[in-house]
Write a structure and sequence with these properties.
The structure is a single chain. By secondary structure, the chain is of the alpha+beta class. It has one domain: Metallo-beta-lactamase, Chain A, CATH 3.60.15. The strands form three sheets. The chain has a seven-stranded mixed sheet. Strands 9-10-11-12-14-15-16 form a seven-stranded mixed sheet.
Length: about 280
């Protein structure tokens, strides 16, 4: 009998569930536009025991005859995450039951979980959807030649994903992918970084990918970027615009690096934003 309860929201015909893949560690010195001491203080003030810890969420969506996974976590790459498969099992879902995978982008902590421990496809029956600019970027030898050592490793993993899933790979540009599911361009973090908005009945949720890595820092200070951003200025502009939009519309949001509660609203007071996790 499964007694594990995962954070979940009913969005009309869709049941959206946050499935944790675990954590990764990233130094606060990777952040720009903030002193690491101040960043650490913000984390401690928010009750974060390990300031350098970043949570990894994936999202399971069931409804309209589909079983959808949004991102696949780190799969244990660099000892990051690796809990997705066990947690999917706890949620009563087998890898073979996933028929659709939507990628926000192709960084390792979002795609390395597409492989099992043997390096084979973890979800062999799933269509893999990614933004066409995201696929093109990681497959471009010109960009690869300019990459530093860390980024070169990212290229290798993304290329392995797109190669092994090539028969299952589908690309999108924008707008509706599946009825009720719209891709939302969120430029800056990667070439094709995208969110996914689910609308059904009278409810909506936006899964916003990597708009933040440290939510207690970057929601209060949207100009703070991280070294993983391809275009930090664009990433910061996208974050500010989106925080304004979702707070004004009271739109439920979800994100790959929010806490384990998985869902939240953004509240605005004057020029300041804060995150309020949904119960």
């Amino acid at each position: 009998m499964n007694n594990v309860t995962f954070p979940s929201q009913q969005i009309g015909e869709f049941t959206v569930t946050a499935i944790s893949d675990g954590y990764l560690g990233a130094s606060l010195e990777l952040l720009s536009n903030i002193d690491p001491v101040d960043a650490t203080r913000l984390q401690h003030n928010a009750g974060v025991s390990d300031p350098s810890s970043i949570h990894i969420n994936c999202y399971l969506v069931r409804g309209r005859g589909r079983t959808i996974l949004i991102d696949a976590g780190a799969g244990g790459f660099k000892q990051w995450g690796g809990q997705l498969q066990a947690n999917l099992a706890q949620a009563g879902v087998l890898p073979t039951q996933i028929d659709t995978i939507l990628l926000t982008h192709a960084h390792p902590d979002h795609v390395a979980g597409l492989f099992n421990a043997s390096g084979e496809m973890a979800f062999p029956g799933a269509e893999l959807w990614a933004h066409q600019q995201e696929v093109a970027f990681w497959q471009d030898d010109g960009y690869l030649s300019q990459a530093n050592d860390r980024a070169r490793g990212n290229f290798m993993i993304a290329r392995k994903v797109f190669n092994q899933y090539r028969k299952n790979l589908r690309t999108f540009a924008s707008n509706e992918i599946i009825p009720g599911i719209n891709a939302v361009p969120l430029p800056g973090h990667t070439a094709g970084h995208s969110g996914f908005r689910f609308d059904s009945g009278d409810r909506s949720v936006l899964i916003w990918g990597d708009i933040v890595h440290f939510p207690q820092i970057q929601i209060a200070h949207p100009d703070v970027c991280i070294a993983f951003d391809l275009d930090p200025l664009m990433s910061a502009a996208t974050r500010s615009q989106l925080l304004d939009h979702v707070s004004a519309d009271k739109l439920l949001i979800a994100g790959m690096h929010l806490g384990e509660l998985g869902f939240a609203h953004i509240e605005r007071a004057g020029k300041n934003y804060s995150i309020v996790y949904a119960g």
